[in-house]
Amino acid sequence: MSALGMMPRAAAVIVAAGRGERFGLDAKALVPLLGRPMLAWSLDAIEEAASVREIVVVAGTHTRDRIAALLAEGAWDKVVAVVEGGLRRQDSVAVGVHALSSNLDVVLIHDAARPLATAAQYDACARLAAHHGAAIVAAPVSDTLKRVADGLVTATVTRDGLWMAQTPQGFRRDDLVAALRSPAARETTLTDDAALFEALGWPVAIVPGDRANLKVTFPSDLAMAEALLRTRYDERVKPGTEAPGSPRKPAAVG
Length: 254
What we know:
Blueprint: E1 10-16, E2 32-33, E3 36-37, H1 38-48, E4 52-59, H2 64-73, E5 79-84, H3 89-98, E6 106-111, H4 119-132, E7 134-140, E8 145-149, E9 152-157, E10 163-172, H5 173-180, H6 183-187, H7 194-199, E11 205-208, H8 219-232
Parallel strand pairs: 1-4, 1-6, 4-5, 7-11
Antiparallel strand pairs: 2-3, 6-10, 7-10, 8-9
């Protein structure tokens, strides 16, 4: 078990194989966000994370060449590979983990559709994962929840103790490898990496996140993501003034 204050040696696996039919494109990770491919924003934050040594991007058959071209344009020194994912999420994650070095403490899994995760969240997730075995960024549910059947409300669900899972999600490397080889990984289709650890009865810690770490699912989410990014990054950097892959730096605070 790692001391909580120590910075572990981590790597990030970005799952970027999703399609973007709702946006009129076939690659959600490459949807333009403030004039840059959405994937570029996640790469920027991971580059700044002190814990992360390596980055692997998991692409789809339809996106691998274009993502490789984007990475060639940018200044992301931590990227070590672009690999093609599998049929299920856990298959894609397993391919990404296999492409990493073996001398790492923690693997952070991140969805390319969450472009607003911060370097601080990656580092906090890596620390807690090294200490507890697994940790996820999550935000408490704030809305009233209703259970619905056939278009009618059947019950109000208490939100006490309910959290919305986000990414990054971090895991001790050896534990993640073992989990991905387990019967639970073979028999279940997962949409959330931590669910595999839960199925095995292994603890998962929470890194308190916020609603700004949104998942871009619908076109309306793009406008919200762009507004949040504009408040976070220096307005001196205008959309279209840099190469598509070039990293932008956060605005100075104060």
